[in-house]
Design a protein that fits this description.
The chain has 302 residues and is an alpha/beta fold. It is built from ten helices and 14 strands. The chain has two domains: 214 residues, Rossmann fold; 60 residues, Alpha-Beta Plaits, CATH 3.30.70. It binds adenosine-5'-triphosphate (ATP) and magnesium ion. The site of magnesium ion has 4 residues, from α1.
């Protein structure tokens, strides 16, 4: 039985689109990434799963339980990180975590302490004093501290610095190694690539593809900008596999690279490379670059 299943799940906000006829299945023990640009419908689907809003049509099942039939039974077994949330300004991090732990009838204190240490959170500060990233850590620990069977995380890495993101990925791996399941939303292709087994892409409220992450690799590319000591001939770069859209301007070269960037860096080093910046595209950029704006064709799921 899938851990999460949606059947023609539809939500309209008045006449406005939320999501349309979404069919999804998430299996036990996998990390499933739900990927889509801003406004695609990720948060809408997640809020339907946890019964914060009700569907216009279709249904959502979590652990086989229709989410609007018995949300309490579902919430007992999940950890949920909302996309946006506000907590109690005057409570410290520790008090906040304990308060949520007490709602669960207590949690394993050693595990709670381990999470606080691993996420490098100072639990003595009041919530209102925390920076954006530290607030996100509090939310994540609330979702994780009772070791739920299923994590439902809406853009979990928002605001986390790269080191903490690494910790988060490690915790996800441990979670699935214990047979538990993760459903997370993101708008970053690279992040999903690193953390997920399978991915569903949603655009304009509809699922356009569901596949193993490996199948998405060729969607992924980097925008590179290379700065040199003097003007550089772009021709040797054109001959490198995966390089396209080269733009040469005085002492800089910009290009799009799909696949490994190593050969480009090697070539650049021969020409007096001063500086290199690599920009990982958002899903929207990668996806739209691949299928074109308003592309009617739904990509082949392979
Ligand atoms: N309460 C609401 N009332 C009206 N429209 C809404 C409401 N909530 C969401 N929508 C609309 O539903 C669509 C999907 O929004 P949703 O928040 O699910 O997107 P998202 O994929 O989570 O985007 P983001 O990446 O920006 O978080 C958007 O067009 C949004 O304007
Ligand atoms: Mg959202």
């Amino acid at each position: 039985m899938p851990v999460i299943e949606t059947e023609r799940l539809t939500k309209r906000y008045g006449l406005r689109r939320g999501i349309e006829e979404v069919d999804l299945q998430v299996e036990a023990g996998e990390v499933f990434g739900f990927l889509g640009p801003n406004g695609a419908g990720k948060t809408t689907l997640i809020r339907l799963l946890v019964d914060l809003i009700r569907p216009t049509a279709g249904r959502a099942l979590v652990f086989g339980i229709p989410s609007s039939a018995d949300p309490v039974a579902i919430h007992r077994r999940i950890g949920y990180l909302p996309g946006e949330y506000a907590l109690y300004d005057r409570l410290t991090g520790a008090e906040t975590l304990d308060w949520f732990a007490s709602l669960r009838g207590g949690v394993d204190r050693a595990w709670q302490r381990a999470l606080i240490e691993r996420f490098d959170l100072d639990p003595a500060r009041r919530y209102r004093e925390y920076s954006r990233g530290n607030r996100q850590k509090v939310g994540l620990i609330i979702a994780l501290q009772h070791r739920p069977e299923l994590l439902i995380l809406d853009e979990p890495t928002t605001g986390l610095d790269p080191l903490v993101q690494q910790t988060f990925l490690q915790v996800l791996r441990e979670t699935t190694a214990e047979g538990r399941t993760v459903f997370l939303s993101s708008h970053l292709l690279g992040e999903v690539e690193r953390s997920c087994d399978r991915v569903g892409i949603i655009r304009d409220g509809r699922i356009v593809t569901v596949d193993r992450v490996a199948a998405l690799r060729d969607l992924s590319h980097h925008a590179l900008e290379l700065r040199f000591a003097g003007p550089v001939d772009p021709d040797p770069f054109r001959r490198i596999d995966g390089v396209s859209e080269i733009v040469a301007a005085e002492t800089t070269l910009r290009m799009r690279v799909s696949g490994p960037i190593g050969p480009v860096v090697t070539e650049a080093a021969r020409h007096g490379l001063l500086d290199l910046t690599s920009h990982e595209p958002s899903l929207e950029e990668a996806f739209l670059a691949h299928y074109g704006p308003g592309a009617a064709g739904v990509p082949d799921a392979r």
